[in-house]
Amino acid sequence: MTVHATPGRHVLADFRGVAPGLLTDAQALERQMTAAAHAAGAQVLSAHFHHFGAGAGVTGVILLSESHISIHSWPEHRYAALDIFMCGAARPERALERLRAALAPDTLRVTTVDRG
């Protein structure tokens, strides 16, 4: 039997109790997520963020050479769902910690899945 290294780790994070103003600013979220990708050792290829209007949330994705980071926010619930998938030498846990520091959730639930 041949054992293969896992090609990637997929981190799913539920941030609860985030200040609503942090979840409505698409440009700030893009900057924070780009910085998180760099902190993880990932290479950013592109980004796309969409704000759904006054008082509404943001959906955004950072496309990486190593995969992606995405966010979906619901400021009215003080909640954000983050998806961080990275392969190779990139460290998704470092991206998660950077985003945790930036968004300061009251509670955090994390599920990590080895992919491949």
Please explain how this structure is put together:
The chain has 116 residues and is of the alpha+beta class. Helices cover 22% and strands 43% of the residues. It has a 6-stranded antiparallel beta sheet, covered by helices on one side. Helix 1 packs antiparallel against helix 2 (92-103).
How would the blueprint of this fold be written?
Elements: E1 8-16, H1 26-39, E2 44-51, E3 58-64, E4 67-74, E5 79-87, H2 92-103, E6 107-115
Antiparallel strand pairs: 1-5, 1-6, 2-3, 3-4, 4-5
Helix pairs in contact: 1-2
Summed up:
The chain is α+β, with helices and mostly antiparallel strands and 116 residues long. It is built from 2 helices and 6 strands; from the N terminus they run βαββββαβ. It is 22% helix and 43% strand.
How many E strands?
6
Anisotropy-based shape: globular
**Helix-residue proportion:** 10-25%
| Spatial extent as radius of gyration | 14 Å
Question: How does the helix and strand content classify structurally?
Answer: alpha+beta
Ends apart, CA distance between termini: 16 Å
Q: Could you state the order of secondary-structure elements as H and E?
A: EHEEEEHE
Largest sheet: 6 strands, antiparallel
**β content, as a range?**
35-45%
Average pLDDT score: 95
Strand order of the largest sheet: 2-3-4-5-1-6
List the quaternary state of the chains: single chain
